[in-house]
Amino acid sequence: MSIRRATLDDLPAVEQCIDDAYGGYTELLGHKPKPMQGDYGSQIQEGIVHVAVDDTGDLQGLIVFYPRDDEMLLENVAVSSRHQGKGLGKKLIAYCEDEALRQRLKAVALFTHMKMSGNRGLYLRLGYEEIVREEDVKLDRISFRKALT
């Protein structure tokens, strides 16, 4: 498995991975999760989408992040259902953290929906601290931050 910057050739697989990873949350949330509404073509062109591929080039997961002020904003991490539970999400997040360190940023910040309890648990296990809860009919999100040393 390797992680590289996505190209427009990856767009169909990126969109499929997003639908696969987040589709199960639609009923729970009562609407499509925000990642399912993203413009991944534009994000790929901006250079902020990175994909995890196997030796055959099969896309297993992806991560979207970019610098914001003195921290890296981790906007999205998705792993296809066939590859979930194998530590790929952790590897993608570590890749983002390594890039933040390389750019001499002080932290990684992210948001997740309050109802996505599995994600919340993962972020806490990886050393992220809950910063604030924003309860709103459409938002209901928790922001997390991990200081980098």
Q: Keyphrases for this structure?
A:
7 strands, alpha+beta, 149 residues, 5 helices
Provide the fold topology:
Blueprint: E1 2-5, H1 11-22, H2 25-29, H3 40-46, E2 49-53, E3 59-68, E4 71-79, H4 88-102, E5 107-113, H5 117-125, E6 129-134, E7 141-147
Parallel strand pairs: 4-5
Antiparallel strand pairs: 1-2, 2-3, 3-4, 5-7, 6-7
Oligomeric category: single chain
SS-based class: alpha+beta
Give a count of the beta strands, DSSP E runs of length 2 or more: 7
Rg measurement, Å: 15 Å
Please state roughly what percent of the residues sit in beta strands, choosing from under 5%, 5-15%, 15-25%, 25-35%, 35-45% or over 45%: 25-35%
Q: Describe the largest sheet.
A: 7 strands, mixed
What are the segments in which pLDDT stays under 50 over at least 5 consecutive residues?
none
Instruction: Bin the helical content.
Output: 25-40%
Count of DSSP H/I helices? 5
SSE arrangement, N to C: EHHHEEEHEHEE
As laid out across the biggest beta sheet, the strand order is 1-2-3-4-5-7-6
The outline comes out as globular
Can you give the mean pLDDT?
A: 91
Distance between the termini: 27 Å
